[in-house]
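[audit] Reproducing an earlier prediction to check determinism. Same input, same settings, fresh worker. If the tokens differ from the archived copy the diff job will pick it up downstream; this log only records the rerun itself.
[audit] input (215 residues):
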Amino acid sequence: MMELYSYFRSSASYRVRIALALKGLPYDYRPIHLVKGEQVQVPFSDLSATRLVPLLKDGDALISQSLAIIEYLEETHPQPPLLPADALGRARVRAIALDIACEIHPLNNLRVLRYLVDEMKVSEDEKTRWLRHWVEDGLAAVERQLAGHPATGRFCHGDAPTLADAVLVPQVFNAQRFSCRLDHVPQVMRIFGECSALPAFANAHPGACPDSDAR
């Protein structure tokens, strides 16, 4: 059985949990507590060169980076598909996913926020302003990708969840957690609601994880 090294609040890990749930793939959950620094401690630091979660272990293979893991799952377990059948559709889904994973997420992850406070000596209020600015601005760009596009359906692309939805939902969860403004992204929030109603997304939610502090 596959093993997923994850932290319940990690949005990158959340993406992979959603993909695994959508594909109905069983796995063993291996919690790595990022706030306690377990990612830089043995034994995990011996497994992961980047010392980041998520990390998927499939047999002897170790795969890092959430989008690479999801693409690996797509290639090894193609049903149900998380990418459209046509090249243009695949490009659009990947673009939406990358708009979040590359343009929003890196600016509001734990390492960056800690550096702002610990090394740059910004205040907690300034840190929160930083986070909210980049999340709200980034989600506005995603909204423009979705609004009025003929390929936008019940979900980001068509009427079945794709890679784009698996990446979108964790980012909105983080935005809500930090009280970001979301009234300017109605399509994003509509799709978030559609996804949240599905068992696969609910089962992957941070509150459903074995290491959740809500338990």
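[audit] rerun output stored. Observation attached for the diff report: The chain has two domains: 2-80, 87-201.
[audit] end
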